[in-house]
Amino acid sequence: MKNFATLINALDSTNKTSLKQEAIAVFLETAPDADKLWFLALFTGKKPKRSINSTLMKQWAMEISGIPEWLFLESYASVGDLGETISLILPPPEEKIEYSLSEWMEKIIRLNAYSEGEKKEFVSAAWCGLDYIERFIFNKLLGGSFRIGVSSKTLINSLAKYYQLDPSAVTHSIMGDWNPAEAEFDKLIHGGYTDTNLSKPYPFCLAYALEKNLDELGETEDWMVEYKWDGIRGQFIKRNEEVFIWSRGEELVTPQFPEVHDELMKWSGNFVIDGEILAYKDGNILNFNELQKRLNRKTLTKKMLEEIPVAVFVYDLLEWEGDDYRGKTMKERRLKLEELLETQVSDRILLSEKINFNDWNQLPELRENAREINSEGLMLKHKNSPYHTGRKKGDWWKWKIAPLTIDAVLIYAQKGSGRRSAYYTDYTFAVKKEGELVTIAKAYSGLTDKEIQEVSRFISKNVVEKFGPVRTVKPELVFEIAFEGIGYSNRHKSGVALRFPRILRWRRDKKADEIDDIEDIKKLIN
Fold this sequence. Notes:
By secondary structure, this protein is of the alpha+beta class. It contains 19 helices and 22 strands. It has three domains: 2-143, DNA ligase, ATP-dependent, N-terminal domain (DNA ligase i, domain 1, Orthogonal Bundle), CATH 1.10.3260; 205-400, DNA ligase/mRNA capping enzyme (D-amino Acid Aminotransferase, Chain A, domain 1); 404-522, CATH 2.40.50.140.
């Protein structure tokens, strides 16, 4: 655990990518292979099932430290992170436990079969033998939540640099379904499982936001234009009569879309297709909020499948009969994809429409009206472009619609974690409803460091109530909230849910009585 603790401390202590890469290199140099596998698993989202709930952890920590609940809650409110709070309030360790990261993970996984008393005994003994930073990591591992400030790109580049490999090859190697308890690290990094794992997806090709004038792109005949769909992007793999559906977040989501799986099982051939999963009914694309109702459910009822059917709008072909098509041009890949869909007629798997145009001036109006068909805007793809790994500026552009915006007032706040634990950075906003305030969205980004400090000072002086780490604030600060979409929702008090809400700007020029009304906001829903 010591090597891993040193790594986490180093990653959380800097914003510089070069220093993060150095810290990862040191860990790779000194850690055993089993620890490297768990490091990779944790940083790529393959965390084990939560073994102990936070209420029990809090209860045990208060018993050991001898502090009352009110003081624990005050400490938690100040620190902003439960695992860190527990690490700080516990007495100094009485002994030293020297388990590796992989050994800790094996023990934590076995906890799921323990009784509550056995869990308490194990956790208490661990806290007694770990220092502050090791306790903090241990608590994170127990809780099934592991978020440390390193991007997937930094991780990939660090591995590629250390092992002198191509970043795209590393990305491909570590994607997919592998088990840290069974895999061999060196074999995994060097692609040893790539050819033997039928479900293996390819790294996604991503687009940059359009940053040029359209006429700077060159001749219109060199470009293919499609609508940018607001769904779940996925890769649809069929190899040796098996079908796998992967999300862009590298999650195997096949069980969530049984109708797509069953449809692809009827198709002949072996292929990997890139496309978008959309809620689709009676020839119309539904609001993303409808699709969201189906996500991450353990059981999909017959009623749910009937009320929110899905379709896949496909737009690229990455592999055909074992041949990698990514090096071929967009034009060649599209032609082959069209041939495939001509022979496999389906009302569930549809070809994403190409927009016919011969003048750049025709596109702005199409983009502005895209929201009417639940599209986010337009995609512009050069016909000679290969299917890149990640982003490569110049070949694929996304030209999204300007976001929707509302004015809302800040009513709840909570301190952040890590470097932001001293400031209130997590905000909840409200709008008007029949003369009262009703919450509509949470937002965590959009303010400068200076504004965050200023808002934090206001919150500290204007707290109305306390609920654990959450503070109710006098409703005076108004902010313009931007979001990509909106839909009806029974889970929210306002009756609506915003997609990707973030703070656009602080409206110092507005007072709380000038915020938007929920009935006006509902008019934005298609």
